[in-house]
Amino acid sequence: MVKQTTASSPLLQVEDLGKTFGQKPPVQAVRGVNFSIAQGQTFGLVGESGSGKSTTGRLVLRLLEPSAGRVLFRGNDLGKLGKKELRQERRHMQMIFQDPYGSLNRWMSIRETLEEPLLVHGLLDPAGRKQRVETLLNEVGLPKAALDKYPHEFSGGQRQRIAIARALVTEPELIVADEPVSALDVSVQAQVLNLLLNLQESHKMTLLFISHDLRVVEFMCDQIAVMYLGQIMELGPRKAIYRTPQHPYTRALLDSIPGRGKKELPRLKGEIPSPSAIPPGCPFNTRCPLAFDRCFREQPALYELSPGHVSACHLAEAEGQPQGRPNNIAMSPGTGA
Amino acid sequence: MSLEQSDNLVVEQAQTLDSGEVELPAAVQPWTTWKRLRRNFTAVFSIGILVILTVCALAAPLLTNNAPLTIDPVHRLRAPGVEGHLFGTDYLGRDVFAIVLFGGRTTLVVGLLVTAISMVIAAVLGLLSGFYPKVDAVLMRVVDGFMSFPSIVLATAAAGYFGPSVATVILALTIVLIWPSLRIVRGSALVARELLMVEAGRSVGVPESRILWKYVFPIVRAPILVQTSFIFSAAVLGEAALSFIGLGVDSKTVSWGSALTEARNYIQNAWWIAVFPGIALVLTILALNLLGDALRDILDPRLARR
Ligand SMILES: Nc1ncnc2c1ncn2[C@@H]1O[C@H](COP(=O)(O)OP(=O)(O)OP(=O)(O)O)[C@@H](O)[C@H]1O
Ligand SMILES: [Mg+2]
After folding, report:
1. Of A31, A200, B90, B118, which sits 20 to 30 A from A66 (CA to CA)?
2. What global pTM score does this model have?
3. How many domains, in total, are found in chain B?
4. Does residue B63 sit within a domain?
5. What are the structural domains of chain A?
6. What ipTM did this prediction achieve?
7. Of A18, A134, A133, which Cα lies nearest the Cα of A67?
């Protein structure tokens, strides 16, 4: 699918975002993440389980307090907003969760669920709310009869449609969708993804799309960031990531997609290390088939390979230009060309 | 006692909910509760007994022509069934049947008010405590303080301080019975706080007060319900205990507890003065505890079969 790229100022800017959970031992879930999303774009966040995708999504919406860095939404630093202002700002940014049943209040009917965002933000009068809820329900492909039912009366796919409707009801500008289809049957995944794409088009929304499935991300996203152990390893336009991936981790992930032509690298060995014990140097060095001595000493900077396509790999140094902003705040000295 | 058992239940329930994906057990969901209740023999049986006892207490003037406090020295210590005294008369010639019926009213009033007041306070404070760590830090010290006294000592002290009356009994028992329920509500609120739907509500922009009421309260409702029947039974027993040691209701009020006290000296020749109020008391306590256990089974996540 072809989408237009508007060259306006970004709707969302994430700067040096970091989150550490707990003390003994500290879990570094997100480390020095930078990206920005332009209005109307879909930005994909991929990576294995535990790479910090969900945490990043929560930080972006400030459902979690970051340990470092900041998030600018519509030019405003969300961290500077008071409690009430932040709550009011939530009207413009919403989330779709992986588990639709868990994310819906099962004591509330669908009507109450969908009216609630309008109600708590003081939008529309009762008649207008009713109208809006019915329109949206129709848009997500559910019958009007669904309104007076409760979440347990629906299938997984239908519940996710309800959750999508709830996220859209206040006409937000940004939606964070955290693995919105990975809990669903394969047979309905495509329907829900198509629904999301159509809605995004018709409502002119910006989407931060989180997934561990590279095929889904390819289908959905304009820009893609590959995360590993809380860091962005490679970031770029979809074409660049899928046609000319640079980072060995990205290449290994692409190799693991069944039926995708020749394999570039040997299979990845081992498992993703624990985020409470991130290896020194390049975080990927324990599994990288191309790792050499420098990878164990030095954390790679982000190198720009082509406009908007960056990779955090020492091997990219020869090909690319070091980018102004380092990938990680705790970068070792002497890095970069 | 039963209060501690239900405390354990909530802790176990919390662990079940805490481990891994936080998924609510089926039984905590409202639409299964009612169905299970109707299918549970113990629950239906105990509710039946309680309904009969309540109706008897409420309809007391219709069921007997005797007033419970009317002294009739001529007809003292009559055996049950004699001269229109179904349960006999006591040492002052008062009708024991009337005492049991009207005493049931005292029990009902004390039980209802103590349960209602202590559950409301426990629910509000427990929710706040589970949700706000600052409130929690203060409140839990208070709870520990109150709970470090044996409850009967605390109730006796309170009742002794205020002097005998129904209001005193209610106050004294409420002070004692708030704390275990508060801890249980707090435990459930701690679990509820971590639920995805609560985070989802926040992400939508639902204000905190509405989160507490619309998202968390429905979850703590189940343990509150179980707790209610145990608290009720503890209140009934507590009233009898306070009355028995002379710190309960005043002399112008009849209650099962005070009837038992007065029966003490005559029990060898007039068993009925003690036995009938005693049966009423035991039946009530038994039914309430059975109901509490049944509710616990019905709402227990480990028994949840889908
Ligand atoms: N509230 C929390 N407290 C402690 N650790 C946490 C918390 N949330 C996440 N983590 C840890 O942070 C790391 C990143 O978690 P996150 O959920 O962001 O990963 P993810 O990429 O979304 O993975 P998945 O594909 O499994 O959803 C994990 O190791 C996780 O255990
Ligand atoms: Mg996740």
Report:
1. A200
2. 0.80
3. 1
4. no
5. 12-225 (3.40.50.300)
6. 0.85
7. A18
